[in-house]
Amino acid sequence: MKQRILTGILLVAAVLGALALPSRFFAPLAAGLTLLLVYEWVRLCRTSRRAKLIFALMLPLAMSLCLVWPQLGEALYRPVVIGNILMWSVIVILLITSPMVLGHSLWGKYGPELGALLLFGFWLTLTQLHSQHIWLLMTTLAGVTLFDTFALVWGIQFGKRKLSPKLSPGKTWEGVAGGTLAALTPIAILALADSKNWINSHAWYIPAVALSIAIAPFGDLFESLLKRLQGVKDSGVLLPGHGGLLDRVDSHLAVVPFCAFFALVFA
What we know:
By secondary structure, this protein is mainly alpha-helical. The chain has 12 helices and 2 strands, in the order ααααααββαααααα.
């Protein structure tokens, strides 16, 4: 437990330090993070070695092109956000209705292709939000972290009704409720700090963050499904006490594109 807490503190410090960087430094750093996610994603895929190799080469190439020509990333931003929203919407619907169909049909056949869309979308929306809506990004990331933490705590203390017994027996509806309440804390802090000016200029953060956080449990459930299909407990061993990097950002993979979408709508 001490190792888990220490790793968690170091992770938070690393994320805050990265967010404080100028965009020209943050984007390649986020690309490095995404490459680590690619490695763990490939580990969970069941498709051919050739498909995995194409995916592992295609994504770094796409990110490199956007880093060299920032105008390309800006041009791709809106269609990539919409594509990710549609894909996550399909994933959410299938997680609710037919999770095994999602696992064996969509993921089983097109795991690398799905990873290319979702991970590239995650990186691009992360970098664009950092340069355009840094406070929204920070508020959302803080909200997701609080959601994950308090969903676990509340689930242990008060959890009775299982969220998805087949995919993740430890998650409960009580945990989701507690995590959701905690996730709204960053918005309350910002509002209290400078209520009048903040509400006038950032009121749209409330629906944007709240609606984005609502997707967080499904990112977690989706990764739980992938690990169950592969028969592993963690996506990797990169983070002592936490498992893999994908285990820590699974909720963020779903939330960040929705955050970008609501920024496009409300801003």
